[in-house]
Amino acid sequence: MSYLLRSDPVSRIHPEPQSLTSFDHFDLLPDSLLLLIFDKVADVKDLGRCCIVSRRFHSLVPFVENVLVRVDCVISDDDSSSSDENHRFSLNTASISDAGGAGGSFSALFRLVFAPIFKPFQMLGQILGPKRSSSSFDASFSAINDEIGVTHHSPTQVLKNFGEIRFLKIELPTGELGIEDGILLKWRADFGSTLDNCMILGASSVIQSNSVKNHENSVDEDTGNIPESFYTNGGLKLRVVWTISSLIAASARHYLLQPIINEHKSLDRLVLSDADGQGVLCMNREQLEELRVTPLSASSASKRTLVPALNMRLWYAPELDLPDGTVLKGATLVAIRPSESKKEVCDASWLSDAFEEPFGTAAKMLIKRRTYCLEMNSF
């Protein structure tokens, strides 16, 4: 990968050294090269340490373009007096059908199972969007521990002195969704002023096999149909939980990013991920600008962006053998776009690139199977 050096400021922040015997030879490096080095450092804690090395470093760090903020902990609101109504949301299904034609039992079961799953997610709003007097993002996240005390600073506070950020990545300590050991659940969502697309990959269990198989451009030998047991043994209910909870987590993250997006107009790309690799929210420059100019449709009670009516596609395999030997039991892929979107939900280009390997390969294999169509109202 090649990097282009940025031109030095019109007037140097640090003057040219006058004598080769009275200065640090590091001072011979131009500002543009130092900024490139700081861009590679990226971590905001390390950049903070660089600031105390010299006045020159202290003056240059605010011009860094690539910044990484690793959040140490998430502060939740344990106020038990808040009513359930403050964190409740509603979801209505319009229709669910098999892309091939059949699917009555799928639709009926979906309507039956979505109602009981609301309560487990009522606490998610408390964790991601606690009621505090300061802004939602500042109150929800604490990022950097002062080495001399226990004070915490939010990403908004930490980034306020950076004026040229182009790429920003914020990493949460864990994913928001508590899932049982052995279950695979990953999601990726792109947002503008609202949801642009979301991809969810899940499996009821992951088995690591020593045998490496060649499945390039192949599909399992079964028919690709969802077995009847999927509707009766809780398999469908589990996937409904995965889908709704992933959408809630993504929309909550998006809601909490508003202060940073509005303050840093230079951003070209923003990524909010977690150390567990559970979920990734991405926004490019066009989407960032859309959020700044378009009023955000949000729920102040649940502290999340409202999700519009959705078109969804689901692919399922009872067992999926990946080329590296990994076996996914009950592998499920869900692709989601707003109903009003002109983009095709099944566009293979964004489906296959949503996850890192070997899960990108799993997505490619799943989209070759039979497709099931779902629709969901806004919530």
Written overview of the protein:
The chain is α+β, with helices and mostly antiparallel strands. It contains 13 helices and 15 strands. The protein has helices spanning about 30-40, 45-50, 55-60, 105-115, 120-130, 135-140, 155-160, 230, 235-255, 260-265, 285-295, 350, 360-365; strands at about 65-70, 75, 95-100, 140, 165-170, 185-190, 195-205, 205-210, 270-275, 280-285, 300, 305, 310-320, 325-340, 370-375. The strands form 3 sheets. Strands 1, 3, 5, 6, 7, 8, 9, 10, 13, 14 and 15 form an 11-stranded mixed β-sheet that branches. Strands 2-4 form a two-stranded antiparallel ribbon. The radius of gyration is 24 Å and the shape is elongated. It starts with about 30 loop residues before the first helix and ends with a strand. Mean pLDDT is about 75; it is low at about 75-150 and about 215-220.
| Class derived from helix and strand content | alpha+beta
Query: What is the molecular shape?
Result: elongated
Element order, helices and strands?
A: HHHEEEHHHEHEEEEHHHEEHEEEEHHE
> Please, what is the average pLDDT?
75
Model regions low in confidence, pLDDT < 50 over at least 5 residues: 76-150, 215-220
Q: What is the multimeric organization of the chains shown? A: single chain
How much strand content do the residues show? 15-25%
Helix fraction, binned, reads 25-40%
Biggest sheet: strands, sense, closure?
11 strands, mixed
Instruction: List how many beta strands DSSP finds.
Output: 15
How far apart the termini lie comes to 43 Å
